[in-house]
Design a protein that fits this description.
The complex is a heterodimer of chains A (235) and B (257). Helices cover 44% and strands 20% of the residues of chain A. Chain A is globular. The longest helix of chain B is centred in the middle third of the chain and has 26 residues. Chain B is globular. In chain B, helix 6 packs antiparallel against helix 11, helix 7 crosses helix 9 and helix 8 packs across helix 9. With 257 residues, chain B is α+β, with helices and mostly antiparallel strands. Classes of the chains: A alpha+beta (235), B alpha+beta (257).
Chain lengths: 235, 257
């Protein structure tokens, strides 16, 4: 799943649900005048396309890969059928939905009240938790789109973090050097979201080359999973 | 735990078995037989304006299917600043977390407009949403819609002006109230929009000067709905479309595929 690839477009029918393994996907809400705001990030703990199993034809948000990597995809109809069978997959997906809702709600309050720098810290930490490495491929432009601020705002905030020795970046690669201090600098929103994910999805792996939501799918039933295959779209 | 509202609310009259659930769209969508089965678990209560239905991070003991009552889900920062992330009225359920497998709610739920609601114990709801049950299918559809509404709140709180957001809020409340008139003080609107009270007062006087609303001792009247819609951001229409879509979809959600 290459950087910048739109996994699904807002308002369009989603043919597949995606279970990221090493990639990270951001869901964005785009307003009529084209401004965007990140509403949630999903990585190896989750699935992109919760609307699919909840019976939706389309989703109002846009999902974009912001950290390149791998993932699995599953045809929407297969996921729907699996979901309606109930059991651990259904439970897992519903709990994931709850966690996602918390993340989105927390993002709303964070956008409203916290500084760009705090938001950037939150985003970096959430991304790190979903990444096997300490390094993220993130351009300032991409981050600006996610935080719904201007690129200069991100550059300035990132500059401060770099100066403080918390991160290092060059040519779109961002490395976190001092995680504890980054956490100290973030607003509480990161901790709130993290706690909610741990509470609802206690078995979520970190760091993991596998997707935990997908795992509960695979362990649930295997006979009907013909539609499931590793998704490895060339860049 | 006396802090949550429901306890302090008089456990009101039980609904007679013949009652038709006209008030709440989810309950109303259920077939009569299914509704009849749920009825012993439902109790009618009145939610009072300003009542805190849930505190953040507290265990949910009961869920509510609002009728005339309107409840806002509110997120709070550590230093006490707030913003509304979703409003729930007769189209929905307060306590969707229970349905999704949660136990506590990270958000606070505050009653905005006083009115009736059907209350059900959380443990009863858990039993009732066996998979494939009609109630589960309705709640899934609602969850999806509500998720879209929350997502939109993120963008709205970030990109739209106080004037736009105030107009949206007033239109929404006016729709729920049905009469175009409702009771609400600037302070509580400010908490919902995540802005200072003075910003609301200023924005409201601009709307009043334009003869779009009138405001008198906490009583707000929408005088010019189309005019107010022009001042609002797209979010008002977006949310209305979402709920209209849901309403149209309810029968389909119930028919087995």
């Amino acid at each position: 799943m290459p950087l910048g690839w739109a996994v699904c477009e807002s308002g369009e029918a989603q043919g597949h649900a995606f279970f990221p393994t090493t990639s990270i996907v951001s869901s964005l809400y785009v307003t009529e005048d084209g401004s965007s705001a990140e509403i949630a990030v999903a990585g190896n703990e989750g699935v992109v396309g919760v609307a699919v199993f909840m019976g939706g034809e389309s989703t109002p948000s846009r999902a974009v890969v912001y950290s390149a990597g791998h993932g699995y995809r599953l045809g929407s109809s297969v996921l729907k059928a699996e979901f309606s069978e109930g059991g651990s997959l259904q439970q897992r997906l519903l709990r994931y939905t709850q966690a996602l809702m918390t993340q989105t709600a927390q993002t709303a309050v964070c956008n409203r009240h916290h500084s760009v720098e705090q938001q950037l810290c939150r985003l970096l930490l959430l991304s790190l938790d979903r990444s096997a490495a300490d390094e993220l491929t993130l351009s300032h432009e991409l981050i600006a789109g996610m935080l719904g601020v201007r690129r200069e705002g991100v550059t300035e905030a990132a500059g401060k973090l770099r100066k403080a020795g918390l991160i290092r970046y060059s040519r779109g690669r961002m490395r976190v050097l001092d995680r504890p201090r980054l956490e100290a600098r973030a607003c509480e929103c990161y901790a709130v979201v993290k706690a909610e994910y741990e509470r609802l999805l206690p078995e979520a792996p970190r760091p993991a080359p596998r997707n935990s939501s997908y795992r509960s799918l695979a362990s649930a039933r295997t006979s009907r999973l013909d539609g499931l295959r590793a998704f490895d779209r060339a860049a | 735990m006396p802090s949550t509202g429901p306890r302090s609310t008089r456990p009101a009259r039980r609904v007679p078995a013949a009652a038709v659930p006209l008030g709440n769209a989810i309950l109303a969508a259920l077939l009569a037989t299914e509704y009849k089965r749920l009825l012993p678990r439902l109790e009618h209560v009145t939610l009072k304006r300003g009542e805190i239905v849930y505190r953040a991070d507290q265990e949910i003991e009961a869920v509510y299917f609002p009728e005339q009552a309107v409840v806002a889900m509110v997120d709070t920062t550590h230093d006490g600043r707030t913003v509304e992330v979703g409003v729930i009225g007769r189209e929905g359920i307060v306590g969707i977390n229970i349905f999704l497998g949660g136990v506590v709610t990270p958000d606070k739920a505050i009653v905005q407009l006083q009115g009736g609601a059907m209350r059900m114990k959380a443990k009863d709801l858990r039993k009732e949403v066996r998979f494939g049950s009609p109630l589960q299918r309705l709640l899934l559809g609602y969850t999806r819609t509500f998720l879209a509404v929350i997502s939109q709140s993120v963008a709205c709180s970030e990109h739209h002006s106080v004037d736009q957001r105030l107009a949206r809020w007033l239109l929404t409340m006016s729709d729920y109230a049905g009469s175009g008139e409702f009771l609400m003080v600037h302070e509580s609107i400010a908490a919902m929009l995540g802005v200072r009270r003075v910003s609301v007062t200023e924005a409201a006087s601009r709307l009043q000067a334009a003869a779009l609303i009138s405001y008198r001792r906490g009583r707000i009247s929408v005088l010019d709905q189309p005019g107010l819609e022009k001042r609002s951001c797209e979010c008002y229409r977006f949310i209305r479309r979402q709920y209209e879509g849901l309403r149209a979809e309810l029968p389909r959600l119930l028919s087995r595929k």
